[in-house]
Amino acid sequence: MDIEQLEIRQHMAQYAPFEYLGDEWLDQVATQVEISYFQAGTDILALDQEINELCYVRSGAVEVSKRSGQLFDRLVEGDIFGYSDIMRNRRVRFPVRAIEDTLIYFVPAELFESLRADNDDFADFVETGGDRLKATVDQQRNDNQMSSTRVRRLIRRKPTMVDIHTPVGEVARRMREDNVTCVLVLSEEQEGINGPRYFTTQEGQVRRLAGLLTDRDCCVRALAENLSGDTPVGEVMSTSLMTAQSDASIYEAMMTMLNHNIQHLPILYRRRPIGVLQLSDVMRYETRSSLYLVSSIFTQSGLAGLVRLSGDLPLAFARLVDEGADAQMIGRTMATICRSFIRKLLELGEAELGPPPVPYCFMVLGSCARDEQTIFADQDHAMILDKSFVPEQHDEYFKSLAGFVSEGLAACSYPLCKGDIMSTNQRWRQPLSVWKGYFRDWIENPDPEALLHSSIFFDLGFVHGELDMLEELQGLVCELAPKNALFLAAMARNALSRTPPLGLFRTFILEKDGQHNDAIDLKRRGTAPLVDLVRVHALACGSGSQNTIDRLKDISETRLLPEGVNDRLRYAFEFISMVRIRHQAVAIESNESPDNRLRPSNVESHERHNLKDAFEVLSHAQKFLKFRYPVPAGSSRGRGR
Amino acid sequence: MRDWPQRLQKHYRRWQWHRRGRLVSEWPAYLADRKDKARDDRLARYFGAGTLDPHTPISEVPLVALDIETTGLDPSRDSIVSIGVQPFTLNRIPVAKSRYWVVSPRRALSSRSVIYHRLTHSDLANAPRFDQVIGEVLEQLAGRLVVVHYTRIEREFLNAASRHYLKEPLLFPLIDTMAIEAYQHRRLSWFQRLIGRRPVSLRLHPSRERYNLPPYQAHHALIDALATAELLQAQIARHYDPDTPVGALWE
User: Fold this and answer.
1) Across the interface, do A2 and B98 touch by the CB < 8 Å criterion?
2) Which residue in A276, A349, A499, B30 is deepest, having the highest Cβ count within 10 Å?
3) What is the value of ipTM here, to two decimals?
4) What whole-number distance in Å separates Cα of residue B34 and Cα of residue B166?
C-alpha cells in the first residue's frame, strides 16, 4: 500500500462505520477512494442525479437538505452521506451542498455493498440511518469485552526502531528520550521483500525486523556482562521474536505473551511494526482495582489511613476509564467509594463519641445519591433524626458527629459544599417531621429557593442508620409531586435555565445567539440540564428512582415521552457523561486538576460529532419539556399575582 | 479584487491571460518539433502521445500531479531521489492510479538531505537509476498536462537528468500551483502592504491551509503529488472558470 493511501486509511479508520472494518477491508477502501474538492456553496449531490458512490467528508462541512429545500442535517469531518440513496434506488433524494471548502472521498457503491454484506456492524450503522450516538455507545459497551477488542486499540504510540549497528549506549539514550522500555531492531535488506520478517517502511524502504531490546536486556545482557556502550545492539538483542497482528484480539495477544513468558509483543500491521504491546498495558486494561479500594476503606483503623487511601482515588478513576467502563459503572463505583468513606467515618466517629443517643439516618444528596458521581465531587449530606430527638439534650452529639464526618471527607479530598448543604448546618440536621414539613412546603410553594432545594434534596441516597426514615421522605415526594401541576411547571421552567450550545467546531463552541466560546462546561451545559430534565419527568410519573438512567426506565413505562425520545436521552446522557469523565481522566493522567471545562480542540473529531448530536437531543427535549408542563390555568401565579 | 465590479474583474483576467498567453503560445510548436526530432524512443513515445490545444478548457484536460524529491536545490550538482505521480482531472483524483519511484542519485547524499527525506544511503544505492524508471514515468505523464508546485525544481531537475542519461532535453508545459498562488496573492498585496501585513507563505502546505485542505505529512513525493492535485482543484474552484483555456494557465 502506498503512503498516500495509508494517510487516507488512517483517517477513515477513526470513524464509524469504517472503524468497524478489519485491516483487509480498510485497505480495500483506502486504495479505491477517489478524491474531489468542492468550494463552499457548490453542489456535491444534486436532487435526482444518479449516485454510485458513498461520500465521506475528509475536511470541511456540508449541508443535507430535504426535497423541499428545508435543512435536514449538517455533516463535518468523518461523516458519510449518500448511503441511503445507494441502498434505495441510486437516485439522490437528499441534495448535498458544501458550506465550507470541502474535500470529499468517494467510495464505489460496489465496494460499499460488499462491506455491508461482509460486516454486520458496518451494515447496522448504515441501515439504522447512521445513528452515530447509538452506534458509539453500543460500541463502547462492546469494548468492555477483552475478547472482541482489537489489540490496535491499546497501541498508543509508534514503536522506537533502531538500526542493528547502533551502539547499545545510544539505544539506551533513545529509550530514555522516547520514554520506552523496548525498542525494535531493524536490519537492512538481504533476501528481498519475500524473506521472513521483511517489511516495507512508511518511507518505502525494505527492512527486516531482526530482534528487540528491552530495558531488562540492557541490564542483563550488556551491563551485567561488562560490555561497553559501543557494542552494536545486534549483539545483545533478543532474536526470538513473537509478534501479533493489529487486528488480533487483546485476549489472543495476552495469551501469546503469557504462553511465551514475554513482557513485550511487537504488533504488526501486515508485516510492518506499528507498536509494541506491553503485558502491563493488558493488565491495566483488565484490573478491577476500584473494588480493591472499597474493601481497603473498611479495613482502615483511623483517619490517617483513609486520607492515604483517598490518594489512590484519582488513579482508580483513571483506570476505570481506561478499562472501558461506561459512565453508569463509573458513576456507581465513585458513589460507592464515597459512601464507603462516609460509612467508615461514621463508624470512627461513633467509636470516638460513643453510641448515638437516638436513632438517625445519614443520607447523601445530589450526584452521589444518583450514583452518578465523578472524581472530586463536593460533599452533599444531611441527617434525619428520630422523633424522640430533643435538641437541648441530643444535638451536641449529632453536631460533633456531622463535624467529624465533614472534616474527614474534606481531608479525603471531597471539598466542603459551597452552598452549605451539609449535616453540619443545623437546618439540615432535623427530625423526620421537620423534613416532611420542608418537602411539603417546597412542593406547595415553589419559589426560587424552594426549587433550588427540590433539585438538590429530591435526589436522596441512603448511607447509614435507619433506612425507614429516608424511605418515608421519598414516599412523600412520590405521592405529592405528580399531583401538583404548578410545582411541576415551576420545576420544568427551572430545568430550562441551563441550555446546551448549538454546535461544536474544531476550535470553538457555537452558541445559540451566534456567539463563539472557546470552552464548554460539560456539567453545567450538558449533564446537569439533562439530569434536571429527567427529574421533572420522573417526579411527574411518581418514580422512586434516583439514578437518571433508572428514572428514564420508569418514565418509559408511562406515556410521558414520545416514542424513541427515551432511548435518545439515555444515549445522550451516557455520551456526555463519558466525555466529561474522559476529559477528567486525561487531566489526572497528565497530573492536572480535573475540571468540567472542555476545549473542542482537545476532542477528537468523531467525538465532537457525537457531542453535537447529544446536545441536539437535549435541546429538543428541553423544548418538549416547556410545553409538556404548562403553568396550570387558574393557578395563583397564572393570574399574575 | 474580489470587491471590484464584475465587468472590471473580467477585463483584468482577460488581460492577464493575454499577457501570459504570449509567453506560452510557443509550446505547441516546440512540442511538435520535439516529436519529430527525439532520438530516444521513450522520449519519442512521450512527445508522440499528442499535444494539447492551448484553447482546451481546463475542465476537459487529463492532468497529472508530479512531485520529485531531490538531494538539494542545484540541478547541476544535486539529483532526484524519488518521484511521485498522481493522475487526476478537475473532478476526481483516483488514488489507485498513483505511482512512486525511488531513484538512485548520481552523487552521494549529503547528510542534511538524509534527515530531510528519511531515505538512507543503502535505500538509494539499491534503487534503480533514473534512466531505468524514466520510461515508466513518461508513460504516466503521456497525454496528460503536468501539474507541479514550484515549476523550477521539477522542470530543471527532470531536464538535467534527461540531458545526463538520455543526452536530450526534456521540457514540457506545466501548470504551477505555486505560481497561481503567487499570482492570486500578488494582486491582493497592495492592500496587505497598506495594512502592514507580511506576505503569505506560498509553500505547498501553508497554501493548502488557505483552501481548508487537510494537513498531510510533508516531503514525500507521492503525498506531495496528491496534495498538489487537491490544491489545483481548490484553486480552480475558487479563482477560475472551469472553461479557462489551459494555455492561460500553463507555463
Assistant:
1) yes
2) A276
3) 0.79
4) 14
